[in-house]
Design goal:
Distance between the termini: 81 Å
Low-confidence stretches: none
Helix content: 40-55%
Shape: elongated
CATH topology of the largest domain: D-Maltodextrin-Binding Protein, domain 2
Strand order of the largest sheet: 2-1-3
Oligomer: single chain
CATH architecture of the largest domain: 3-Layer(aba) Sandwich
Mean pLDDT: 77
Order of helices and strands: HEHEHEHHHH
Radius of gyration: 37 Å
CATH class of the largest domain: Alpha Beta
Number of strands: 3
Amino acid sequence: MTNREVIPPFKDLTDLLSNTNYIVLSFRGSMIYESFEKQIEKLMNDNPKWENRVQFMDDEREIYKTACENEDKYAIFEVHDTFTVISRFVCTLIPVGNLYYKTWISFGIQKYLPYKRTIDVALIKMQEVGLVDCLKERWLLTKLDNKENSPFKKIDFDQTYVIFCILTIGIFAAILVLAIEHIVFFYESKLNTTGKRVKRKTLKALIK
């Protein structure tokens, strides 16, 4: 039984396009789509042979279906939060390289909403009791093992009989050593008893 760790053959996007045959998939409607498209256009202008190496799709589910259910080589350019969820519940993804873009995610409420203070107090309480950190650790900071999922394979007896043979030989060797120790113990006890009897007879003879 072996435990194999999958190591991607590239370190970043440029290394992927230069030294591998992987095809990059990206969602056309993502927040970083425009910036990523500009970066790709610049790379394509410098290297026209990479023109078909990056594909943009309109359906995000189709991206993961293509990458996870296809035996061809694909890489996905994805948001980190989405990657975390997909890696836990859809298919195993391996993060490669550093973050390309950083942005803030926030929500807004109506300016004179009567429940604004209630929402603020609730958020502060959640932060104080550690509920926010707990949610981050539960959903966003989960450690993902970079292991390849291989199907279960049965183990035949001919693959393990050597182990049982060694255990059996060890048991017989232990029994043999124990028997020899008992024999030596009884032999030495008998010699000691005989020696004591000889000493007693000698003492009796001297007394007489």
